[in-house]
Write a structure and sequence with these properties.
This protein is mainly α. Helices cover 82% and strands 0% of the residues. Helix 20 runs antiparallel to helix 21.
Amino acid sequence: MATELIGIGILFFCAIIGGIIAARFKQPAVFGMLLIGAIIGPSSLNIVKDANMIEMMAELGAVLILFVIGLEFDISKLIKLGARSILIGFLKFAIVLFFGYETTLLVGFDAKTALFIGVILSFSSTVVIVKVLEQKEMFRRKEVPLLIAVLIIEDILAVLALTFFSGIRDSGRSILSTFEHVTFSIAILIFAYLIIMKILRFIVNIILKNSSDESVLIFLSLSIGALFSYFAFYLGLTPSAGAFLAGSLIASLPNSKEYGRAVHPIAMILTSIFFISMGTMVNFKAVESNLALIIALILTILVTRLIAVGFLTLLLANFKNEQAFFSSIAMISVGEFSLLIAKESQKFGVDVDLVTITASIIFITAILMSIGINYSERLHNALNSRIPIKARLKIERMSEYMRRFFDQMEIETHFTKKLKSESRITLMLFILALFAFFVLRRVSLAMKISYNAVVLYVFYAISFILMIYLLNLVYKRSKVVHHTLSVILTNVDSSRNIKKCDRILDNLLLALLLFFSAMLFPFAIFVFNLNIWANVIPFLLITASFYYLRNSVALIDGHSLSSSGVSASIAVTKF
C-alpha cells in the first residue's frame, strides 16, 4: 500500500513538471504529460514501476477525461449543428479510418491491428487544436466554428467506437447476439439518461435549497459520473461511455457553468494523471522497432487530413483561398481519444504496442500542427498553382452548388421544417423496427423450449407480418424525406425541374451510401473475420460510388453550363 501511495505521489509531482515543460515550449499540457510519463516509466528511468497502480490510474483518468468532455457537450449543441458539419465529421472519420487501415495492411500487419490503427488516426485532438489556435491568436478565424463542430461530431463517434470495441470483446457470442447486446445496452443507458435528465433539475434544486456550499456541486457532479460509469460497466459497455453521458447531463443544467468551474480543478489534476500514466506505458524500444510504421502513419495523416478536411471543407463548406488548407493543417494533431482506443486494443491481444505508437504520433502531429499552421498560406499557394484550371473550375462549380444546397437546408422554411420532422419520425420508426426484431427474436428463442411447432409457426407468421408493416412505414417515410429534399434542391437548381433534382439526389445518395460502405468495410472484415480477399470489396464499392458521383456532377455541370456557360468559357479562355 505504501509503495502505491508513493507511486501516486510521484505521478502528481510529475504532473506539475510536465505542465512546466509544456508551458516552456508553448505546447499543450498533453505534450508535457506524455513526455514526463515516458521518462519516469519502466522502459526509461523506471521510477514508477507498479503496473497495477498505473493501470488503475489510467482507467480512472480515462473515465474522468470523458466526464470532462461531456461537461462541454450539451445535447442541444448536437441538434444545432448544421448538416454540412455533421457530414464532414462522418466523412473525415470514415476516410481517415480506411486509409489508415490500408496503410497498416501494406506495411505488413493483420486486419485487427489495421482496424485499431485506422480508428486511432481518425480523431483529432480538441485540446491541442484549441490551445494552439488560442496561443497563435487564430481562434477567431472564420473556419474555427465549423472545425469545432466537426470535433464535437468526432467526440460522439469516439464514444461509439469505444462502446463498439468494449461490446464485442466477448468472442463466445455470435455476431447477431453481440450486436443485439450492444444495441440493448446502449438503449438502456440512453433511456436512463433521458429519465435522469427529466428529474435531475428537481433533485438539484432540493439539494441547493439546503446547502449552497460549492463542495456540494463537486460531490453531486462526481457522484453522477460514478453512477453512470458503473451502470455502463454493468451493462457490458465501457465505463467511459457512461462518464461522457454523465458530463452531458451536468452540461444540460441551467447553472452548468458553475458545476464546470467547481469540478474543473479536480478533473484537470486527475485527467493529467491519465496522460502521465499512458506515458509510463511508452516503450522506447517499441518506437525504434516500429519506426517505419510510425513514419508511414504520419504521412497517411498528412495526406488524409488534406483530403478529408481540406477538400471536404472546400467542396461542402465553400471555403475560399487558403481556408481549406488552414483547416486541414489545424486538424492534423491526433488526440486524447486515440490513446483511449489504443488502451482498449490491449484487451484484444493486438501484436504491436499501440499505446507507444499512438503517444509517438501525438507528439509528432502536435508539433507539425503547431509549426505548419503558420505556413498554411504559402503551402496553399504552392499546391494550388499545380491544380489544372479545368479541374479547379469544376471543383468551384460543385462547391458553389453544394454551398447553395446547404444554405437552403439551414433556412427556416415550410420544407426544411418538414424535412426535420419527417427525418426524425423515419429514424424513430427504424429504431422501433430494429428493437422489434430483437425482441421478437428473444421471444422466439424462449418459446422454442416450451411450445410446439404449430404455435411457433403462428408466432413466426405474426412476427413476419409485423416486421413487414414496420419496414413499410420506414419506406414510406423515407420516400417523403427524399421528395422533400428534391423540392429543396429545386431552389438550388434554377431550372426548378423536380425530375432532374430527383436524379441528382438519387446519384448523390447512392454515391454517399456506397462510399461510406467502402470506408467502413474494415469493421465488417474485423467482426466477421473475413479473409484477405475481402479487402477487394471496398475498392469495388469505391468504383461504383465514383460512377454515381460522376453522374451527379455531370447533371449539375449540365445545368451550370447552361445557366452560366458563357462566364465559365470566358474564365477558361482567360486562363
